[in-house]
Amino acid sequence: MTTTIKDVAARAGLSVMTVSRVLNGERHVSDQARDKVQEAIEALGYRRNVFARGLPGSRSFLIAMLIPEIIPDYVAEFQQGAVEQCRSAGYHLVVQPFDSRTGMAAQAVAAAVASLRPDGFLLIPPVSDDLAVLDTLDEAGVPYARLAPSVQPQRGASVAVDEVEAARAMTSALFELGHRRIGFIGGPPDHGASAWRLEGYRRALAECGLAADPQLIAPGDFLFATGEAGAEALLGLAEPPTAIFAGNDDMALGVMATAQRLGLSVPGDVSVAGFDGGEISTLTWPQLTTVRQPVQAMAAAAADAVIGMVDAGTMQGPARRLDFTLLLRASTAQAA
Amino acid sequence: MTTTIKDVAARAGLSVMTVSRVLNGERHVSDQARDKVQEAIEALGYRRNVFARGLPGSRSFLIAMLIPEIIPDYVAEFQQGAVEQCRSAGYHLVVQPFDSRTGMAAQAVAAAVASLRPDGFLLIPPVSDDLAVLDTLDEAGVPYARLAPSVQPQRGASVAVDEVEAARAMTSALFELGHRRIGFIGGPPDHGASAWRLEGYRRALAECGLAADPQLIAPGDFLFATGEAGAEALLGLAEPPTAIFAGNDDMALGVMATAQRLGLSVPGDVSVAGFDGGEISTLTWPQLTTVRQPVQAMAAAAADAVIGMVDAGTMQGPARRLDFTLLLRASTAQAA
DNA sequence: TTGTAAGCGTTATCAA
DNA sequence: TTGATAACGCTTACAA
User: Fold this and answer.
1) Is the shortest CB-to-strand distance from B15 to strand C under 7 Å?
2) What is the dihedral angle through the alpha carbons of B232, B237, B242, B248, rounded to the nearest 10 degrees?
3) In this predicted model, what pLDDT tens digit does every residue of B73-118 receive, in sequence order?
4) At B115, which helix (H) or strand (E)?
C-alpha cells in the first residue's frame, strides 16, 4: 500500500540503514549507494513517515504555534511566514487553539507538548510574555522563539522591531508635518508593544519640545471599537488634536471611521496614523499612514531560529531585530 | 522522563492493554479498572503520544488543511473554526502551505498525505474544486470535506451556503431600495462562487423586470485593486449605476475607496454591497452592507463531517448547507 | 474482563 | 562504508 523505507532498500539492493543514512544526508555513504537510493526514492515516490521518525523520541519535525480564538491580521501573516519557513526546512506547522480569555496558555502548551512532542514552539504576543508558558517549555526542553517579547527578553530566541524608535519616528513625522497637538491611543496592558509605542510617542514629544498633555492620551485595546471610542474622546476635547496616532491599525481605522462619522475630513481636519502595516491598512480611503513591521519575515526568522535551536540542542537562541518602515500615506497631511 | 502508558499501567497495577482500552473508551472494562486507570492518568499527568498512536497505521489524529500564500480573511476565520472543532474531537490541525500560483495543489496534498498520513483533509476554494486533489485523496483513501464545491459537488463531504440565492436576495434588496441601475463586479473564473454570485444577480434582475445591461458587469478577481478598477469603469459610464454589488468584501472596499476618491458619497451618491461578511466589513465607515457567510460554523461543520467519515471509514460525507444572513448596513441607502 | 505478543516505519547502537 | 538488531509508545489480533 504505502511505500516504506524497506521498499526503497529492496529496490536499491541495500539495507534500510543505508537508505536512512542517505535520507539524513550523513557522510560515510558511497556515491554509488547514494545514487541507487535516490533512484529508488524517485521511482517509488517515497516519502518519510513523520510518525515513525518521531517515535524514537529524537525529533518530531513538528513546530507548534498557539493561536487565539480571534485571528488578527498579523497572526495570519505571521503564520504564513512561519509555515513556509517550516516547510522549506522539512518541518510541519501544527496550530493549537487556545482560549485567550481564560489566560491558561501554559496549559494549552503543556498539553501540546505532551501529546504532540513538537520540536519547537513559536510564541506570539501576548503569549510570548507569558512566563508560565516559558517555564513549561523550559522544563520540557522544547526550544521556543518569541515575537516581540518585553519581559525577560533574553529567554529563548526572539524577533522584534524597535517599536519605541518606530513610534518615536512616526510621532516625529507628524510633528514635521506641522502638527503640534498629537493624540495617542494606547494598547492593552498585557502587550509589551503598548508600553513601547507609548514610550516612543512620549520621547518624540519631549524631543520636539511639545508638552505631554495627558488629555491627549486615550486608552485602547487594539480593537476597532476602542479606536472609535478614543477618537470620540480626543476629538471632543475643547482643544482637539490635529493628528491622532493610534497604537495599531485596527484602532486607526476606528479613528478614521469616527472622524468621518463626525463630518471631519481625513486628513483635512485630522491626520490619522496607525501601527503594524498589515493588509487592512491598504484597504481604506484614504490609505492609512502606518509603521510597517515585516511580520512575515519576522515569522520566518523566528521559525529559522527555533529550528536552529533544535539542531543545536540549545534552549537559547538569537535575538534578532528587523527593520520597520514608515509608510507615510494619504491619511496624514500637513497641519492646517 | 516522559510518562508512557507503561507508567500508567504500573501505577494502576494493570496491563497496558487495559489502560489502552480505557483510553479509547472501549467496553468490556470493569468500573474498578477504569477508576484505577483514571486515577493513575491524573496523578501522572499522562498524555497519549500522537506518534505512537499514529504509527500502527490506524489513525494519526491529524487533520490537514492547505493554505495559500496569501491568507484572506475568510481563510483565517475558517481555520479558526476548524482548529477548534478538531481540538474538541481530539484531533490536531496541520496547515500545509502551497503556492497557488503554480496550481500544483495536488502535489502538495500528495506530499502531505505521504509524510503526515492525516486522517482527513479540509479543502477550501479554489482547491476544493481541484479534481486532481480529489483524485489524489480518493486514491490514498483520505476523506475530505470541501468548502463551497462547484464541480462534482457530490464527492466527499461539503459545506456551503446557497450563494445564488444569497446574491439574488442582496440584488433584490438593492432593487427594493429603489435602485434600478445596479452594477456588479465578478470574481475569478476558478472560484465557483464567481459564477453563483453572478447568477444570483442576474436572476434578481430578471425577477425585478430589469434589463441585464452587460455594461453594468465588470470583471474582478476578489482583490481590492480589482474592486477599484471595476468601480472606476462602472462609475465612469454615461449612465452610471446607483448601486454596486461587488462579488466579495475586499472588492466592495475597493469600490468604496474609489467612490470616495472620486468625490462621491457612499451611500449618498452610490450604494455599495459586498459578499462574505468577514471582519473587514465592519472596519470601514460607512459599515459595509454584505452577505454574511457563517464561515466559522461552516469550518466546524466541515471538520465535524470529515472526522465522522474517519470514524465511519467512508469517503462519502454529508452535504451540508448553512444559512447566510443579509447584513444591510450603512453603505447602502434608498436610491436618490 | 484481562493479558500476551507482534508489529507499525524509522533511527541509534553496535558489529562487521 | 555497510548492515543486523533493538527500541520508541501504542494498538490490533488473539488467547486466557
Assistant:
1) yes
2) -40
3) 899 999 999 999 999 998 999 999 888 778 789 989 998 888 888 9
4) helix B105-116
Q: How far A67 CA lies from chain B's nearest CA (Å)?
A: 8
> d(Cα B152, Cα B137) in Å, to the nearest integer?
15
Single-letter amino acid code for the residue at B39: E
Quick one: pLDDT at residue A331?
98
Nearest-5° Cα angle at B229, B223 to B230 = 90
Residues 44-83 (B) near nucleic chain C, CB < 7 A: 55-57
Name the one residue in this structure whose C-alpha cell is 436576495: B169
The answer to whether strand C lies under 7 Å from the CB of residue B21 is yes
DSSP classification of residue B236: T
Nearest to A207 by CA among A195, A218, A199, A216: A199
**pTM of structure:** 0.92
Q: Cα torsion at B186, B189, B190, B195 (round to 10°)?
A: 60
Domain ranges of chain A: 5-44, 62-161+295-324, 163-292
Q: Are B185 and B251 in contact (CB under 8 A)?
A: yes
Q: Compute the distance between CA of residue A245 and CA of residue A186 in angstroms, rounded to an integer.
A: 9
Q: Nearest nt to A27, CA vs C1'?
A: D1
Say how far residue A137 (Cα) sits from the centre of its chain: 19
Q: pLDDT tens, position by position, for chain A (336 residues)?
A: 678 999 999 999 999 999 999 998 888 899 999 999 999 999 998 988 888 888 876 688 899 999 988 888 899 999 999 999 999 998 999 999 888 778 789 989 998 888 888 999 999 999 999 999 999 999 989 999 999 999 999 999 999 999 999 999 999 999 999 999 999 999 999 999 999 999 999 999 999 999 999 999 999 999 999 999 999 999 999 999 999 999 999 999 999 999 999 999 999 999 999 999 999 999 999 999 999 999 999 999 999 999 999 988 899 999 999 999 999 999 999 998
| B54 within 8 A of B62, measured Cβ to Cβ | yes
Q: What angle do the packed helices A73-88 and B73-88 form, to 10 degrees?
A: 70
Same fold, A62-161+295-324 and A163-292: yes
Superfamily in which the A163-292 domain is placed by CATH: Response regulator (3.40.50.2300)
Beta carbons of A269 and A331 less than 8 angstroms apart: no
Q: How far is A211 from chain B (nearest CA, A)?
A: 32
CATH number given to B62-161+295-324: 3.40.50.2300
Report the residue from A47, A93, A256 with minimal CB separation from B94: A93
